[in-house]
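[09:14] KT: can someone run the structure on this one? pasting the chain below
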Amino acid sequence: KNNTLEVWINLETVTLPDSLTSIGMYVFNECRGLTSIILPPYLTFMGDSAFQFCSSLISIIIPPSLTSIGENAFSDCSGLTSITLPDGITSIGDRVFADCSSLTSITLPDGLTSIGEQAFSNCSNLASITLADGLTCSRYSILNLSRIPFFDLPI
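[09:31] RB: done, structure tokens below
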């Protein structure tokens, strides 16, 4: 059932079994005490808003088995400072990293072909972004990034 952990606001650590392949919508939503999590190696699905409002989350390791990240999956994770997107990721949803005010830089993998709208909006400390070859995104995908001094665009 979705919303399983929605009310567990003070949850700090989680150990997920290696056999887990799916994280549903809103599962860790508003777990404001969660500081870090290592996703299982065979994860193939991450639902919308899976980690939204996890304000203490500072790092997350995403396995290469995951190919897309749902809308708002990490939005409003104000403590998130870095994230590594593996080569297996081909699309990220709308507002996926929106309002991640501590995020300073991100490199998007070459396999990424689609960025949802406002994916990085209001990431006030994002100072550099490296875009992947063959990337498709609307002008709204990188909304509110006018303060970024460095864009590395593929040739």
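[09:33] KT: thanks! DSSP finds no helices and eleven strands in the chain.
[09:34] RB: yep, looked fine to me
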